[in-house]
């Protein structure tokens, strides 16, 4: 038996040294901060010189790694601790946003510094957005003056495209909203933003990030109403923003109205119930009748699957619209509503090519069903129509319009002369329609059941 211990195998070979470039550099934001603050102190408050210094320093200092520290210094004068406070034992500089004058012109000048820096070093874009989001969450840790300066600067940077409107999500922080910090900050921000652009540009930016319907969330839940928002921002001098939010709420209410209307129609709810619901919504959301008739028309036309054959779709449309005439008539009590409906019909017939030949038949139907009256039809024919299918539809309507004009003249003439047998309004309508002749007979349901009652099949 071999009592000798067997020697364990060992690994041997050349030991390589780690290359200097592969060694991980220690994260040292304090040293980076000292370099930046020293340079800013030398440049002084000349922001042109500051921009040049930052441009040159990017070649020597690691902006990519210390982006947060860099932006902390430029905004607050030094590295920020959690909550937004400056550490007492750290170096500071007065060449920063918070130490500058509290006016829009100064903030515009600082915005140019950030603009030039980020254009020169594109990789800083993401870091800057993250920095602003953080600063907004720290608002309670800043003084009122510091918040005002940051708000003005943010508004300018949003206007020139340096920042994306998604950074405003930080303002919906529950604590900021509850204490009124978010709303007060938003006032200064939107004033500077709208000053640089206009409300339409602001609205477009908000819409891109789906924030156009969230502005009321700047207030606590018990104050999230159009009335409160309008009062607060109008008194702060932002009437255009108040009107924009009111319009957005109206648009939202219109969409909800159309959705509910379509559901009620698909269920076959009685017209009287539908009319009552729509009128309540009109009153509650301050929706004018001309807008409502457009919603009702769209809803009516979306409840059926239309035939693809042009020769059949007109008959189908007349049958369908005859059924819904009482509903449409309830919301054409104003001349402007009737004109709106005529334009909606024109646009629909143009956009849906199978309806091109049905336009005149639909208008005649609505005239007989008292959805439309003479004056708006004549007004539409004369100068209120739109360009879509204009020549086709005017030609279709030519005979009917001539008949309307002649019938109106005859009625006036008979009233002045007092000749001929007297007729009640129903009989007079029958008489006029019979004179229209061919156009009347073209739609077989149009003939009266009795001349006495003026009822229609």
From TrEMBL:
Protein name as it appears in the record: Basic leucine zipper and W2 domains 1
Ranges of residues in domain W2: 247-414
Xref: PROSITE patterns: W2
UniProt region (Disordered), positions on chain: 1-26
Start-end of Polar residues biased regions: 1-15
CDD domains, per the entry: W2_eIF5C_like
Any coiled-coil regions, as ranges: none
Pfam families recorded: HEAT_5MP1_2, W2
Keywords of the record: Activator, Transcription, Transcription regulation, Translation regulation
GO process annotations (BP): regulation of translational initiation
Gene3D superfamilies documented for this protein: 1.25.40.180
SMART domains: eIF5C
Cellular component aspect of the GO annotation: cytoplasm
KW Transcription regulation (keyword) present: yes
UniProt-listed PANTHER family: BASIC LEUCINE ZIPPER AND W2 DOMAIN-CONTAINING PROTEIN, EIF5-MIMIC PROTEIN 2
Membership in a protein family: Belongs to the BZW family.
Organism classification: Eukaryota, Metazoa, Chordata, Craniata, Vertebrata
């Amino acid at each position: 038996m071999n009592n000798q211990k067997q020697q364990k195998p060992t690994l041997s070979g050349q030991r390589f040294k780690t290359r200097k470039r592969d060694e991980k550099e220690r994260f040292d934001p304090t040293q980076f901060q000292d370099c930046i603050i020293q340079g800013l102190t030398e440049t002084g408050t000349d922001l042109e010189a500051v921009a040049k210094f930052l441009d040159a320093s990017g070649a020597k200092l690691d902006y990519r790694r210390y982006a947060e520290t860099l932006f902390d210094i430029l905004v607050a004068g030094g590295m920020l601790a959690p909550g937004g406070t400056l550490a007492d034992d750290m170096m500071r500089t007065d060449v920063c946003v918070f130490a500058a004058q509290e006016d829009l012109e100064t903030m515009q000048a600082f915005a140019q510094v950030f603009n030039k820096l980020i254009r020169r070093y594109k990789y800083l874009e993401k870091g800057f957005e993250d920095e602003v989001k953080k600063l907004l969450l720290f608002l309670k840790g800043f003084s009122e003056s510091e918040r005002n300066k940051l708000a003005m600067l943010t508004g300018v940077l949003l206007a020139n495209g340096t920042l994306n409107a998604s950074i405003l999500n930080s303002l919906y922080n529950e604590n900021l909203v509850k204490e009124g910090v978010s709303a007060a900050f938003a006032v200064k921000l939107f004033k500077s933003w709208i000053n640089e652009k206009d409300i339409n540009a602001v609205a477009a930016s908000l819409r891109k990030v789906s924030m156009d319907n969230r502005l009321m969330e700047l207030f606590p839940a018990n104050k999230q109403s159009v009335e409160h928002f309008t009062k607060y921002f109008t008194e702060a001098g932002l009437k255009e923003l108040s009107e924009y939010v009111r319009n957005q709420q109206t648009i939202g209410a219109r969409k909800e109205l159309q959705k509910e209307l379509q559901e009620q129609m698909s269920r076959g709810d009685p017209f009287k119930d539908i009319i009552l619901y729509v009128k309540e919504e009109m009153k509650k959301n301050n929706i004018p009748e001309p807008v409502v008739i457009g919603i009702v028309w769209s809803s009516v036309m979306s409840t059926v699957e239309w035939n693809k054959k042009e020769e059949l779709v007109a008959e189908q449309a007349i049958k369908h619209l005859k059924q819904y005439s009482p509903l449409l008539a309830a919301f054409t009590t104003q001349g402007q509503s009737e004109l709106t409906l005529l334009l909606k019909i024109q646009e629909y017939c143009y956009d849906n090519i199978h309806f091109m030949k049905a336009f005149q038949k639909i208008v005649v139907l609505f005239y007989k069903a008292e959805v439309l009256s003479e004056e708006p039809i004549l007004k539409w024919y004369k100068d209120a129509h739109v360009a879509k299918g204009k020549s086709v539809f005017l030609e279709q309507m030519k005979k009917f319009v001539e008949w309307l004009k002649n019938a109106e003249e005859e009625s006036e003439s008979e009233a002045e002369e007092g000749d001929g047998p007297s007729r009640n309004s129903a009989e007079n309508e029958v008489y006029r329609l019979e004179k229209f002749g061919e156009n009347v007979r073209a739609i077989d349901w149009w003939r009266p059941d009795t001349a006495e009652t003026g009822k229609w099949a």
